[in-house]
Amino acid sequence: MPNRDPAFDDYVIKIHNVLTKLDYYRLLGVQKDAGKADVKRAFLKITAKFHPDRHRDATPQIHEAIYDIFKRLNEAYRVLTDPEKRKLYDQQLSAGNVRFSTDLRMSMVPKTPEETITNRDARQFYVKSRECLTNGNIMQAELHAKMAKAREPNNEAVNALLSEIQEAKKKR
Q: What secondary structure does DSSP assign to 38-98, as a single string?
């Protein structure tokens, strides 16, 4: 592998060795008050160096380290460019956690009913049903809700919507 820069490979190993200790800001090289555009700029600059496809000629150890770094860079970018996740991450960081915990996020942020629906088609039928119900079109609302239930029969949000539709039908 004569084309490889041994200094870069040493740098990769050093970064990889401290990867678990680096918070997202340090990893991307941005200040804590950096805006979304600054984060994106830093992300694009650093991932150009650490993209695994640019290092196919690396040894397996170096390639694995680069891949781990690249995954963590992507994780940092996704968190720091999402205002909600970033706020939660900053709270976690002040508690000493350098990685974003999705378990904590899920326990702190209440889900909307449609976010509890995992099937994409069921979610679309749910949203359409809710829209029809809001507009007073109960028959269409019921049809869409039944389509959602067929795709996700045990979802509480879908079942609650069907109950709401039944109540609306009784009031008519």
A: HHHHHHHHHHHHH-GGGGTTS-HHHHHHHHHHHHHHHHHHHHHTSHHHHHHHHHHHHTT--
